[in-house]
């Protein structure tokens, strides 16, 4: 029987095309180390790889298998900059700090590609991203954004597209214009997860799957992470569980909320298809964003149904096909070979959450749909912090990220109401 993640619905196209997916043992017995990492996604595995290569004794535990969460199941788009546009960050923090945050994100992009090349990880990188307006009144913002990126942030790779150019590049007339970014692209995320784990293990990190953390306690200069079959004692701890933290650590849970996102993969569309002839990935201006791209073998990978309630939809295929048909009527009956979902972590302002939640314990997450490149780089920045340079991680720690309102009891219902309202706004 093919493996089915116990925490994320459906089997992804990534799982069937990633090649060999090594299994790692469960922890059995106590361990002592320099750094314990909780969470085997992009953040934790990247931190483990960089720390181990620098000579640290690292133990990493994952409750299920590496890549079962958002890291192995996401849309694969790198994006550019932080989740918010650079000019929005400038309005809040001033040009100097906004530029520093943008430059950090650009370094994250370069780091991901360099890390993959250095460690010989074939991530199926494909260049280009289109960001498109689903309402006419947003078009001027996209035009201004392209000009601002070149003139104020030194990024000349974004160009404005009018409705005609957008239609040609999308193969759909449902959008009113947008931007084209030739300085970024998209990848096969599970291949990166698998390769990063191999790099970390090869550097000497001790990696354990199917090992949930049952508690984290910090005191007396030590951090103790308990698991079902052993306790890990360390000098420092990184929590990198993002949307899958549950009640493990209350501060993170108050600031990072899980939302479900679902993707479908079609059969290969063939060389005659007019869908995305340039091979770019796409994101649109909806608050409940639609994101899609073509794979190297010509399938349309389409994500667009975020779910804020607890229950997963019974049939991902039906909902995804309906959204595909809105943009590409000729695909209304297309066969969808895979439908899957997972949970991403969002914060109130859609900015990443980095905080020392107890002595010597730093939690990192809340990438809000912009985590493919940021999470890998934040793992590197955490390693820098352990090795004595916290300055660059501090840029993210100092961002204003308030907790979700409502306390533990009402947080999820309030989020559901708020985001349902935003979804309604997308349609009117």
From TrEMBL:
Q: For this UniProt entry, which residues form the secretion signal?
A: none
Q: Which Pfam families match?
A: DAO
Task: Give the matching InterPro entries.
Answer: FAD-dep_OxRdtase (IPR006076), FAD/NAD-bd_sf (IPR036188)
Keywords, comma-separated and alphabetical: Oxidoreductase
The enzyme class is oxidoreductase
Q: Does the keyword Acetylation apply?
A: no
What is the protein's given name? FAD-binding oxidoreductase
Q: What is the lineage of its organism?
A: Bacteria, Pseudomonadati, Pseudomonadota, Alphaproteobacteria, Hyphomicrobiales
């Amino acid at each position: 029987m093919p493996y089915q993640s116990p925490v994320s619905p459906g089997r992804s196209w990534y799982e069937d095309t990633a090649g060999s997916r090594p299994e790692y043992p469960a922890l059995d017995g106590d361990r002592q180390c320099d750094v314990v990492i909780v969470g085997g996604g992009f953040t934790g595995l990247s931190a483990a790889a960089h720390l181990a290569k620098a000579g640290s004794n690292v133990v990493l535990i994952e409750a299920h298998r590496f890549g079962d969460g958002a890291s192995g199941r996401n849309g694969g788009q790198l994006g550019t900059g932080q989740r918010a546009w650079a000019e929005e960050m400038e309005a809040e923090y001033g040009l100097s700090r906004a530029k520093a945050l943008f430059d950090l994100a650009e370094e994250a992009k370069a780091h991901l590609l360099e890390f993959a090349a250095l460690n010989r990880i074939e991530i199926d990188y494909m260049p280009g991203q289109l960001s498109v307006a689903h309402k006419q009144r947003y078009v001027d913002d996209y035009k201004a954004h392209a000009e601002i990126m070149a003139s104020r942030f030194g990024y000349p790779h974004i160009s404005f597209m009018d409705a005609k150019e957008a239609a040609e590049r999308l193969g759909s007339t449902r959008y009113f214009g947008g931007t084209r970014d030739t300085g970024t692209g998209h990848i096969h995320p599970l291949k990166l997860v698998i390769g990063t784990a191999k790099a970390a293990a090869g550097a000497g990190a001790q990696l354990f799957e199917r090992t949930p953390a049952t508690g984290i306690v910090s005191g007396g200069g030590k951090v103790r992470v308990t698991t079902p079959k052993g306790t890990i004692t360390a000098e420092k701890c990184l929590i990198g569980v993002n949307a899958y933290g549950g009640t493990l650590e209350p501060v993170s849970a108050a600031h990072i909320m899980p939302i479900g996102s679902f993707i479908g993969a079609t059969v290969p569309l063939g060389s005659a298809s007019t869908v995305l002839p340039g091979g770019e990935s796409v994101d649109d201006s909806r608050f409940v964003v639609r994101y899609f791209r073509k794979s190297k073998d010509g399938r349309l990978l389409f994500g667009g149904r975020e779910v804020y309630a607890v229950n997963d939809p019974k049939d991902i295929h039906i909902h995804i096909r309906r959204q595909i048909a809105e943009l590409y009527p000729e695909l209304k009956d297309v066969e969808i070979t895979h439908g899957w979902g997972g949970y991403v972590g969002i914060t109130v302002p859609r900015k990443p959450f980095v905080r020392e939640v107890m002595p010597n314990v730093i939690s990192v997450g809340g990438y809000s749909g912009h985590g493919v490149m940021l999470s890998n780089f934040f793992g590197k920045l955490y390693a820098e912090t352990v090795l004595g340079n916290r300055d660059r991680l501090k840029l993210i720690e100092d961002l204003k990220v308030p907790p979700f309102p409502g306390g533990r009891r009402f947080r999820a219902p309030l989020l559901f109401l708020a985001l349902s309202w935003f979804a309604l706004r997308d349609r009117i």
